[in-house]
């Protein structure tokens, strides 16, 4: 969340007096227009406005971060006024993925404020593009059911004296069922025909994400999938309702 609070601290007053719900907020940063000895070693005074800022940050589960280089963030040309620290960054509390931020006076160019940056690690997402499957109502499905029935029918439960033997039998059953699935199932690629709700827009945003590995494109893909699902199933529910069929039809 980017914040600009004017000299009257209007934004801070709004955030303090208004119940604002922003879940999973990672960063709150910006120009807070507050001089305080807490974050400015060259400023000798304490500001009561800082208390409001800390309360607001705590409500978002954020902590004041300390920069890697404690230098001014605002630089003035006027000789009678000194540089100051009024640009701050609050990061998610107790997060081991967010480090201290950095101030870059050399990047300010014509601005009187120095840019501040922080590095955020983004875990790579793996999208499953294939799966093992058995075609419904096929001969392969019948064979798989026969194999499973045979395995269950021939479980030896005549000698289960203790929990260790029971666990061994259970593990053996699990392994046999996995082997039966592996022998009968076939690996298939997930395509637009794999899900009824999948459409060309889903394919397009997925392709964009695979090309860029961008977090924004990943979020766009997830959002598009969610909307496609909602649209598809809302239509199905409406069709069933119009046909005056029973609720069990929704399960088919």
Major sheet: size, sense and barrel closure? 4 strands, mixed
Number of structural units classed as domains: 3
**Alpha-beta classification:** alpha+beta
CATH topology of the largest domain: Deoxyribonuclease I, Chain A
Q: Average pLDDT, to the nearest integer?
A: 84
- One letter per element, helices H and strands E, the order comes to EHEHEEEEEHHEHH
| CATH top level class name of the largest domain | Alpha Beta
- CATH architectural designation of the largest domain: 4-Layer Sandwich
Enumerate the spans where pLDDT stays under 50 for 5 or more consecutive residues: 247-252
What keyword list fits this structure?
252 residues; alpha+beta; 4-stranded mixed β-sheet; two-stranded antiparallel ribbon; elongated
Give a quick precis of the structure.
This protein is α+β, with helices and mostly antiparallel strands. It has helices at residues 10-17, 49-59, 139-153, 163-184, 200-212, 215-242, and strands at 2-4, 27-31, 62-64, 87-92, 102-103, 116-117, 130-133, 186-189. The two termini are 44 Å apart.
Overall description:
This protein has a 4-stranded mixed β-sheet, covered by helices on one side. It has a two-stranded antiparallel ribbon with strand order 5-6. Helices cover 38% and strands 12% of the residues. The longest helix has 28 residues, at 215-242. It has 252 residues and is α+β, with helices and mostly antiparallel strands. It has helices at residues 10-17, 49-59, 139-153, 163-184, 200-212, 215-242, and strands spanning 2-4, 27-31, 62-64, 87-92, 102-103, 116-117, 130-133, 186-189. The chain has 6 helices and 8 strands; from the N terminus they run βαβαβββββααβαα. The protein folds into 3 domains: 2-117, Endonuclease/exonuclease/phosphatase (Deoxyribonuclease I, Chain A), CATH 3.60.10; 130-189, no CATH class; 200-251. Residues 247-252 have low confidence and may be disordered. Helix 1 links the parallel strand 1 and strand 2.
């Amino acid at each position: 969340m980017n914040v600009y609070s004017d000299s009257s601290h209007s934004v801070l007053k709004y955030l303090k007096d208004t119940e604002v719900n922003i879940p999973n907020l990672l960063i709150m940063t910006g120009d807070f227009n507050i001089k305080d000895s807490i974050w400015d070693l060259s400023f000798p005074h304490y500001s009561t406005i800082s208390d409001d800022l800390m309360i607001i940050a705590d409500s978002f589960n954020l902590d004041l971060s300390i920069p890697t280089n404690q230098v001014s963030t605002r630089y003035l040309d006027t000789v009678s006024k000194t540089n100051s620290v009024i640009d701050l960054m609050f990061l998610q509390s107790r997060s081991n993925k967010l480090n201290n931020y950095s101030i870059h006076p050399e990047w300010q160019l014509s601005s009187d404020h120095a840019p501040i940056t922080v590095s955020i690690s983004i875990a790579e997402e793996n999208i499953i593009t294939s799966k093992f499957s058995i075609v419904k109502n096929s001969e392969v499905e019948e064979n798989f059911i026969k194999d499973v029935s045979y395995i269950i029918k021939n479980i030896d439960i005549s000698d289960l004296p203790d929990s260790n033997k029971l666990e061994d039998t259970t593990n053996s059953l699990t392994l046999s069922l996995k082997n039966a699935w592996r022998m009968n199932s076939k690996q298939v690629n997930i395509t637009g025909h794999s899900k009824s709700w999948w459409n060309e827009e889903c394919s397009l945003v997925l392709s964009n994400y695979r090309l860029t590995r961008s977090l924004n494109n990943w979020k766009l893909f997830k959002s598009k999938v969610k909307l496609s699902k909602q649209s598809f199933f809302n239509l199905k529910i409406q069709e069933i309702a119009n046909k005056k069929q029973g609720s069990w039809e929704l399960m088919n």
